[in-house]
Amino acid sequence: MIHQVHDSAGRRGLRQRIFSYAYRRVANDELLSGVAEYRRRLLAPLQGTVVEFGPGTGANLAWFNAEAVRWIGIEPNLFMHGPLLQAAAQYGIQGELHTTTAEATGLPAACADAVISTHVMCSVTDAPAACREALRLLRPGGVFAFIEHVGAPHGSGLRRLQRGIRPVWGLVADGCHPDRDLEATIHTVGFSRVEITPFRIRVPVVSPHIAGQAWKG
Ligand SMILES: C[S@@+](CC[C@H](N)C(=O)[O-])C[C@H]1O[C@@H](n2cnc3c(N)ncnc32)[C@H](O)[C@@H]1O
After folding, report:
1. CATH code of the domain covering residue 166
2. How many domains does the chain have?
3. Cα(164) to centroid of ligand 1, in Å?
């Protein structure tokens, strides 16, 4: 059972409606092959209170141990909520769904054993602020687990393409930035230990990915 908390107006624009519709149809395990293995490795062992930034339609919910996790979703796109709640019911997930953002969740400090983010840091308005919020939410010893697409190496042709396509890409993908240097951001916000694995998927423009964990000391 998920308790819905309408703690902000959320987002209900045309851009969010179109992205929610398209994402449900396009972003499947086949397209994102390579990502599923990292979801399993990072999410299956989690226990306790898990805050998920931008859960979208619930792609991560199948990987949690529903018996061991109390889930708190932070999803501002109200058009995602229907399929997300359906997925939560399907996988027996208990917890809360908020309409706030990753940059300002409104949750108390040190409330989470884990914070997770998969394909979200590209879309948030302020990625460093969202990473600082993850750190604030974690109790000492807690872990931030992430799977994100990132900018290609500086000076590469792909990086130039990512930069050039950004305005159009952001319009069709609800604010997604294909060229963010997230790895550097995660290293600088104050986690005590960071482990990051780079990998690639076979999707043009957003093929460079990182998966990893960052701990609060
Ligand atoms: C590409 S989808 C990824 C959904 C899901 N995490 C997954 O792996 O399939 C990006 C999600 O981030 C959400 N999002 C965008 N900006 C956000 C913000 N500032 N705070 C929290 N979520 C945000 C979007 O509404 C969307 O659901």
Report:
1. 3.40.50.150
2. 1
3. 23
Q: Whose C-alpha lies nearest to ligand 1, atom 11?
A: 54
Q: Which domain holds residue 108?
A: 2-215
Q: Distance between CA atoms of 214 and 79, rounded to whole angstroms? A: 30
CA of 122 to the centre of ligand 1 (A): 9
Look-up of token digits 């018996």: 67
Q: Once rounded to an integer, what is the mean pLDDT over residues 104-133? A: 98
Among 72, 101, 120, 176, which is best to mutate for testing ligand 1, by the most ligand atoms less than 8 A from CB? 120
- Would the CB of 124 count as within 6 Å of ligand 1? yes
Residue pLDDT, tens place only, 53-101: 999 999 999 999 999 999 999 999 999 999 999 999 999 999 999 999 9
User: What letter does residue 62 receive in the DSSP assignment?
Assistant: G
Whole-model pTM: value is 0.96
In the reported structure, the alpha carbon of residue 211 is separated from the centroid of ligand 1 by a whole-number distance in angstroms of 16
